[in-house]
Design a protein that fits this description.
Layout lengths: L6 H28 L2 H10 E6 L6 E2 L5 E13 L9 H8 L3 H12 L10 E8 H10 L6 E10 L6 H4 L2 E3 L2 H6 L8 E3 L2 H5 L1 H4 L4 E7 L5 E4 L15 E3 L3 H10 L5 E7 L4 E8 L12 H10 L8 H4 L9 H11 L13 E2 L5 E2 L9 H7 L2 H12 L7 H13 L22 H8 L23 H12 L3 E3 L4 E4 L12 E3 L7 H13 L17 E7 L7 E8 L6 E7 L9 H14 L5 H9 L11
């Protein structure tokens, strides 16, 4: 007997069928069109993505000489599941390692995050071209192993390690901050390599291969349609003069300190020496980590960049700044004369060397009279119109900071320190509010006390004097290939709070210090054909012999180079710092040396005793 189904039941059944059909279609749509994770997972199971690493950009000096380039290297890769029994003794001999290291490498790769025995892992990093050439011929004996091309830095002149910095492998923290990088990638760790990493690194490419269920390559995916080519990093023209840099490093051998030379009209760094230095090749390749530990444990701190990170009292070179502030504030004039009888006579006193007396402003710079600038400093801070010592000191501090002291100059290198310029609040805490006056802090008049400056800041001061009142932020990159110009902050003029007219008197005093005959503190810096203007400094050191300091620029008119030299524990500025500066200036401007005996004397000198007694 036929089943009687009402019209309502037909509609219900039809609706259920249609609903189920719609749900299935929706699910299929989500799986195939919207949801990509399954597709990605499937692709990852059949495709292998092999990164193609670009060569880092080359670095040239200001004259077009190549100073940082690349050498071929190779990472030895292994797919654990494809490895078969092999002659470990022969393998170790080819690679220059021992059998224990082979075992350790196998154990180590298993601990790497994301490790899979079916995917390639780095077995040994940075194999040299020579080793690779031998290995390539015998690679068939070692199934499961392959090589991946890389490049490493090399330095033809072996100079400027502190300036260039070095390249190292990224860690997980770096990857977390920048997803561009993956384990095994290299990145600039310090110096110029770090500051210009984005420009220098280039852009990675990729090759995609089809693999079987055992992750064995079966061919290129879609005949390479989706492969991308690695883009080589941008070349950089550096501001330094490689010959001058190398010469400065030779002069500073067996000495502790720094030389910084700047082109005043642009702020371009011509040389930046930190001594002791190191061969930048030491921080390249598989031995980098071990070499870094050795350098780090050296008591002379060769990897410490003194040019940017060491803070010293500026010593008598700072008298120039106090003199300019006094002229600007009208508390001293070019004709003002003060007598000196061996020291400043008020309070605890400040000693001074024997020289003619009384002196005018330019003579006081020429002979570096402590007494004169004690009067100048107190005249600024105690100027009646300011109303209080706190107000007078704040005015002084504002002027000082306009020279770049107490702030970063924003050079295009990492780890630059700000330096130290004390504040009213600092002295209020130290002496109590109302418990100090200009006599309490009189040591600031001669560049001592609570001042801390870097050699870079001192070289910048020299640039300011050379320019008669302004500076450009120092920088080490002149040009980046493919870019129009450099960062605008390096072409922005910074003007001090001192009227340009007052700088002429300082320039005359600095000229007299070098070329003015009897009484000048830097006579041994004079050159017959180049007019050098300079100021010596002897920075007091509570831990041993005083530091030798000298700043200078040349020629006197239309200066081409400004320089600061700081030699730790070397005594008077005129003894070591000024002849070194003079040799550097002559080397740069004349490309020759007229005093070979002095050059030999400086090169042969050993001044490494950090605890030498005061003389």
């Amino acid at each position: 007997m036929p089943l009687n189904i009402t019209t309502d039941k037909k509609y219900i059944i039809s609706s259920i069928i249609i609903f189920v059909f719609i749900v299935m279609l929706t699910k299929l749509f989500m799986l195939q069109i919207v949801e990509q994770s399954y597709k990605l997972s499937a692709s990852n199971n059949v495709l292998r993505y092999i990164p193609q690493y670009p060569a880092r950009g080359l670095i040239y000096d200001r004259n077009g000489d190549l100073i940082v380039c690349n050498q071929a290297a190779y990472d030895l890769m292994v797919i654990k599941n494809e490895v078969k029994a092999f002659d470990t003794t022969e393998f170790a001999s080819i690679l220059g390692i021992n059998i224990d290291q082979i075992r350790a490498s196998f154990s180590q790769i298993k601990r790497i995050k994301g490790y899979s025995p079916y995917k390639p892992s780095v077995f040994l990093k940075q194999i040299s071209s020579k080793t690779y050439a031998v290995l390539q011929e015998k690679l068939y004996k070692f199934p499961g192993f392959d090589v991946q091309p890389r490049t490493l830095r090399t330095y033809p002149n072996k100079i400027a390690g502190h300036l260039f910095g070095y390249v190292g492998e990224v860690d997980e923290d770096m990857i977390a901050k920048n997803p561009y990088y993956q384990l095994g990638d290299y990145i600039g760790i310090n110096g110029l390599e770090k500051s210009y990493e984005k420009e220098i690194r280039g852009k990675k490419g990729v090759k995609i291969f089809m693999v079987d269920v055992r992750s064995r390559i079966k061919g290129s995916y879609e005949n390479g349609l989706y492969d991308t080519v690695a883009v080589v990093g941008q070349d950089i023209t550096c501001t330094i003069d490689a010959k001058l840099q190398g010469y400065g490093e030779k002069l500073m051998a067996n000495k502790i300190g720094s030389i910084v030379a700047i082109e005043p009209k642009t702020g371009e760094v011509l040389a930046m020496i930190s001594s002791p230095t190191y061969d930048p090749e030491l921080l390249v390749g598989r031995e980098r980590t071990a070499n870094y530990r050795t350098l780090q444990s050296d008591t002379l701190k060769p990897i410490f960049n003194r040019a940017l990170m060491a803070l010293y009292p500026p010593g008598s070179t700072f008298k120039i700044v106090n003199g300019l502030i006094g002229l600007q504030e009208g508390t001293v004039y070019p004709t003002t004369r003060y007598g000196c009888a061996g020291g400043y006579p008020i309070g605890r006193g400040v000693g001074c060397h024997i020289h003619p007396s009384p002196l005018s402003f330019t003579q006081a710079i020429q002979m570096s009279c402590n007494t004169y600038f004690c009067y100048v400093f107190r005249g600024i801070v105690d100027k009646p119109i300011f109303g209080s010592v706190e107000n007078g000191f704040s005015v002084w501090k504002k002027h000082v900071e306009s020279f770049g002291f107490g702030n970063r100059l924003n050079i295009d290198l990492p780890n630059e320190l700000r330096g130290l310029v004390p504040s009213v609040s600092f002295y209020d805490r130290y002496f109590r509010k109302g418990g100090w006056n200009s006599l309490t802090i009189i040591s600031l008049s001669i560049g001592q006390g609570e001042l801390g400056t870097s050699p870079l800041q001192m070289a910048n001061l020299s640039s300011i004097i050379a320019n008669r009142g302004y500076y450009y932020s120092p920088h080490v990159v002149k040009e980046i290939k493919g870019k129009d110009g450099i960062d605008p902050k390096f072409t922005t003029k910074h003007i001090t709070t001192i009227d340009s007219t007052w700088f002429n008197y300082v320039v005359e005093g600095m000229d007299m210090a070098v070329n003015g005959g009897a009484g000048g503190t830097a006579l041994n810096a004079a050159l017959p054909k180049i007019r050098i203007c300079g100021k010596t400094g002897t920075a007091q050191n509570p831990h041993g012999a005083d530091h030798s300091v000298f700043i200078a620029f040349a020629p006197k008119e239309n200066p081409k180079i400004a320089i600061a030299v700081y030699i730790e524990n070397a005594g008077f500025g005129g003894t070591w710092a000024s002849p070194i500066a003079s040799l550097m200036i002559e080397k740069y401007l004349a490309d020759s040396i007229s005093r070979p005996d002095l050059e030999k004397y400086i090169k042969d000198a050993v001044l490494l005793d950090r605890h030498a007694r005061k003389k």
